[in-house]
Design goal:
Layout (H helix, E strand, L loop, with lengths): L4 E6 L5 H14 L6 H13 L4 E9 L8 E13 L4 E11 L8 H16 L3 E4 L7 H10 L16
């Protein structure tokens, strides 16, 4: 992987299969019970909702057999209204880079695009959380470098069957 052509760009419909497979791999690594068949319509819906979902990917281009590049990373951000911030905010739902492509600046490049997009759209804040499966030191360093502030809170979830 010495001469890599790594690009970060918007994910489109031609990337549906690659995005679904990458997110499936990420969910499996976090021991979540999900199938490709249940994940695919969610990924497709996200791709179709460009007004509320920012969907960017990192790609290794120029590899044989990957016409649109091999998808090696993804950032998904939802946009919603916030009373707390008196306007629209972004929620970075997912930032994932394949293990064999980490420490090559892809996470930083994805965050840069998310910040630029959020500022251009006029978002009031970006939120995210670090959970199981994240490397807490690497993730915290990435976000602190970008001036994210640590907010202590308790998150409660009710899961439905």
């Amino acid at each position: 992987m010495s001469e890599m052509n790594l690009v970060v760009r918007s994910v489109s419909g031609v990337d549906l299969r690659a995005a679904t497979e990458l997110l499936f791999h990420q969910q499996q690594a976090n021991k979540r019970n999900v199938t490709l068949d249940t994940l695919r319509p969610m990924v497709q819906a996200a791709l179709e909702d460009a007004s509320h979902i920012f969907f960017f990917g990192a790609f290794h281009e120029g590899l044989p057999g990957f016409q649109h590049g091999k998808m090696v990373g993804v950032l998904i951000m939802n946009v919603s209204f916030s009373l707390e911030h008196a306007g629209e905010v972004g929620w970075i739902q997912e930032l994932f880079v394949r293990e064999d492509y980490r420490r090559k600046g892809l996470g930083d490049r994805l965050i840069t695009l998310a910040l630029e997009w959020a500022q251009a759209r006029g978002l009031r804040a970006l939120n995210l959380e670090l959970g199981q499966g994240h490397d807490p030191d690497a993730a915290t360093n990435l976000y602190v470098r970008r001036q994210f502030e640590l907010v202590r809170c308790t998150r409660l979830t009710k899961t439905f069957p």
